[in-house]
Amino acid sequence: MMNLNCKKDNNELQLTKAGVNQSSPSVLQHDTTIVSANGGYVLTFDDCFIDEWYDLLPLLDSFNAKATFYISGFDHYTEDQILKLKIIQEHGNEIGYHTLNHYYLSKYLKNHTMAEYLRNEIDLGVKMMNNAGFFPTSFAFPFGDFTDSSTVALLTRFQSVRTANGITNMFIRKTRKTNEFNAYGIDNAYSPVMKDVFRSLKISKENNEPVVYLSHQVIHHYRENGYAASHERLIEIIQKAKEFGVPSFTVSQAFRISPKQ
Ligand SMILES: [Zn+2]
Fold first, then answer.
1. Ligand 1 centroid to 184 CA: how many Å?
2. Is 12 contained in some domain?
3. How far is the centre of ligand 1, averaged over its atoms, from the C-alpha of 203 (Å)?
């Protein structure tokens, strides 16, 4: 089947400049508390590779590992893909939200307002998902392109927001009191260092801090380039986590929030 669900060309994806937004002061003030008590790892997958992700289910299930799929372009999915997404969810995985058109937020805001972004890229797509029986509570910025004020706006609609991606420091979070977090890219394009990935699993356990990995397309075998991780790489991570006794979480399991008392 032709893959018509992704409007953008995957080659357009670019690395977020590591740290580009990380020095800006935090303005986040939320009446929420992270209650995640244990270290664990979170596999996240972005965009609209529904068919590849569906094919990943036997692998995930065989290890009892869960993943979170941040989906974009919901207005372009076929009925078959929506059904696959439902099955992915029924297997204990989470379906998160990743906008309709996958814009660079900073570019979008040069010609539009944040209110337009929220209306056209967020609320419209979420409503479509709601109508199809999906109720995403986790959000990820396309390209990891975000601002503090946009993060605040998104956190009024979602329980957690994934911001920068493709970073090398896996544990950057502005404060433990906010459910805003970064992700470490494990696609070939990010040139992940597996030694560091394994180390992050240990740190996650020692610090009771979830560690989040980011991938896009899933491929069966290693290849040189692309925003894709192979089944082999995912198995390596999952097996190492098992060896270390580090559990697998979905995003909403790792970044649960409780109302302020
Ligand atoms: Zn994306």
1. 14
2. no
3. 27
Query: Ligand 1 mean position to 166 CA, how many Å?
Result: 11
Number of structural domains (the chain) is 1
214 alpha carbon to ligand 1 midpoint, in Å? 10
Residues 6+ apart with CB under 8 A from 140: 44, 46, 70, 96, 97, 98, 161, 162, 165, 183
Short-list 252, 255, 248, CA closest to 59 = 248
Q: Which of 192, 230, 232 is nearest to 212 (CA)?
A: 192
CA of 80 to the centre of ligand 1 (A): 21
35 exposed, middle or buried (CB, 10 Å; 0-12, 13-18, 19+)?
exposed
Q: What is the pLDDT of residues 216-253, one digit of tens each?
A: 999 877 666 789 999 999 999 999 999 999 999 999 98
- Ligand 1 centroid to Cα of residue 7, in Å, is 12
Assigned domain for 11 exists: no
CATH number at residue 96: 3.20.20.370
pLDDT tens digits, one per residue of 108-155: 999 999 999 999 999 999 999 999 999 999 999 999 898 888 988 998
Top-confidence residue, 56 or 180: 56
Q: pLDDT tens digits, residue range 156-200?
A: 999 989 987 766 556 555 455 567 788 899 999 888 999 999 999
Q: Are strands 228-230 and 248-249 parallel, antiparallel or unpaired?
A: unpaired
Residues 6+ apart with CB under 8 A from 114: 149, 150, 153
